[in-house]
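Researcher: For the record, we're logging two predictions in this thread. I'll number them. Prediction 1 follows.
Model: Prediction 1, sequence and structure:
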Amino acid sequence: MNERDSEQVARMFIEGGYTVTADTTDADAILVNTCSVRDQAEQKALNKMNAMGHLRREKPHVVYGFMGCMAQSRGPELLQDVKHLDVVVGTQKYHRVFDYVDRILKTRTERRMDDLSLSLQGESVCDVEDEVDSQNTISDHVPKDIQSTAFVSIMQGCNMRCSFCIVPDTRGKERGRPIPHIVEEVKGLVAKGVKEVTLLGQIVNLYGRTEFDIVDRKSPFVQLLEAVHEIDGLERIRFTSPHPIGFRDDLVNCFTYLPKLCSHIHFPMQSGSDAVLKQMKRPYKNEKFISICEKIRAARPDIAITTDIIVGFPGETEEHFEETVACYERLQFDNAFVFRYSKRRNTPAAEMENQLTEQVKEERNQKLLAIVDRIAQEKNEALVGTTQRILCEGVSKTKDSTLSGRTSQNRIVIFEGDKTKLTGKMLDIEITHTSRFTLYGKLVD
């Protein structure tokens, strides 16, 4: 979602006559989009910004800004703590970033003053206020020469109150975009060559539940999937991330009659222990989660299911952790993101008793990661010798001479080929070997 928001901001700068550079020493404006899900993410953003403080002396006119969730939650205190910071913009104001930065930059470049400290006074901006209909402002995309995939934000915010999560405070309440607006955005992307879209929402399968009606016993999210599925030229649809509370039979059934829907869901479990789930304020029990996974696999036998798991939650005993391990082994997830519990300000879990030590968190983290790696490796090795259908996304991230694509199950496949001819194409790749999380193969004639 942050990647999508950053793309929106970049598009506005490009339309305003700016160019994007990867070199901070070459930039006139440097913006850091932030995440608050874990403390590590906030510290990384702060370290990144603080490390650029010396550039102020070399190029006094440069505008520095924080955007996103940390900006939303910390607001004015960031301007106090980071002396060279100019702009702090929250999650509902991405569409205003360009105007703020452009105004400050033009003032600085047009003004000729000997006293630099005076020239910088009164120019900072902090905008973290709520804005009505902000969900409808994220619909533009950065133009690319060849683009086969795209993210599409369908909603903002979250009404759930998991005890560990700061997102409802940083992203606001659930609010969805109208289906026709989303469909038009996807049609525009397809017209530019996009073959696959990923629909984004904080809890994506709860899209529209407070604004739109159920029709023919189908939720607004299922109605949206059906509408996007009808778009000519679109090959694939993904969505992330769903919540068990909204994964009802109408959504499960989609996997039986919407062939463009990819055979992959990222389905956060968080814990395999009912006691821990209760403390997390996750409104389901472990058997309910397992039941949904089994229904999804019955509807689409080749589906890959990945998940999120938090280890070391306050009060998690060794027995609770082993319940999570047992559930992971039972469900045989294709992959998982495993997180050590991290305190978030103003969340109930941060004030709970029985906080675990970092040593215990790390031990459990490493134990579960070893299981995740083993199962992922086994599943990948089983694909060696098979032919997999992929969408070529372009040059791989690790080697310019190879191309990369993904299977319907979201497995990365690396192979050799001509990027100008193959990017954006659906291809058959024979899998020759594998690493932990990556498949390697050769193009089938």
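Researcher: Logged. Prediction 2.
Model: Prediction 2, sequence and structure:
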Amino acid sequence: MTNNSTTPLWLSIIPAMVLIVLLSISVIIFRTEIIQGAAQISLIISGFFAALIALMRGCSWDAIEKNIIATTSNVIQAIIILLLIGTLISVWILAGVVPTIIVLGLKILNPKLFLFATCLITCLVSFATGSSWSTAGTIGVALIGIGNAAGINSAMTAGAIVSGAYFGDKMSPFSETTNLAPSMAECGLFEHIRHMVYTTTPALLITLVIFFLLGMGQLAPHNNSSRIEAIVQIIQSHFNTSLYLLIPPAITIFAMVRKIPAIPAIMIGIITGLLFAYIFQPNFFIHPSDKSMLATLRHSFSVTMKTATLGYKAHTGCRDVDELLSKGGMATMLPTIWLILSAMFFAGAMEASGMLHSIAQAILKKVKSTGNIIALTLGTCFVANFLMADQYLSIVLTGRMYREIYDGKGLHRKNLSRALEDSGTLTSPLVPWNTCGSFMASSLGVPTILYLPFAFLNIITPIISLFYGYTGITIVRANSHKEPLPIESHEEKSQIEEKN
């Protein structure tokens, strides 16, 4: 492989510039349809540019290919979870779980408080489970359905769900990113969580206030009680909406709280959903013309397999309800998986050639103040989310690169771990081709570009973190017994000694 230190910066930025140009053109032409192929092709072409440059620099194709495969292996778990979440959504609709939650929500939730309640509910669920994906793929799907039925702007609803889901992803001790960030920065887990309170709490409060105020305006002419009642009656005429159908999501959430890994926990949700479908929605499994046992078994197997793979297709006679409930299935996740694999091709080629390292080293030379260090960390995480399309890679690579600079400036490592999450975790669902952004868009049925302006927690938290960096608020210096690395600037050294 090429020597990272000899990779020219001007060569390193060519693939990134190619990607930015192609994506910009694609956004202009295809807009919200960009993830249907344009983004994937852009990533593949840009990755090929990176590979060509690496080959010209003396890097073998075998080395590039091995790194691409190794990078892709990091997202295999995410791909499996995507497929299972697609099945979970469709099975829970078939079982009547999602229709039950929608009916209850339409009867209980006041449209004026819906956005506020949606954000708060997803905050609690994601904190309990530690998973933004599971939260969005389960309770989030039901909430987006309730919002659509009640005439709430779907982009606002999705923004509230994403904001709440990523609160738990960032703050819950059960979350993978909450454990990953302090491990990369080498500081304690609960020390890390306590330090994040300073940026996340005010951001959440501001977010809840904004959604409360936005909710006050959700009184469109079509949002009336007669329309909601009609939707409720149509759903109940096609589904048994017994309260017992809340058991599958309760079991799934309990499994996640008990720290059962995501894949088996989701499988538990799918299996319990199928059992409840057979018990509470038997009409779906009876052959319409042949009532024999063998015909029923064949029809039941066919319905189960088609629903799990292709999604649930509603035929209620009401277009609004059909659009509301026709969701899920493994097949609906395939464009997202295609996007993830294309992104990993680009990331693997960039990393194998040493271009990412070269870009990072060039940026590090410009760092002077504490505020710049925090800004650099936040910015690098976002750029990594943008270019490498995976939040785990953004946290791992940024954490590895910047540990020494925090030591050199006499800053406690928990400042680094907090910045990693403030940007690495929270900006990932704001990038359409990122694994998180594409998953949220696929699960909620709302393009990333549309819900992005309403994902207030994800936008506000990095801004607060940046403000703290430049003002020094909540920035913790390294313990006095830890000898910081040599600092080139005598003026900076004196400032640090004065603050200590």
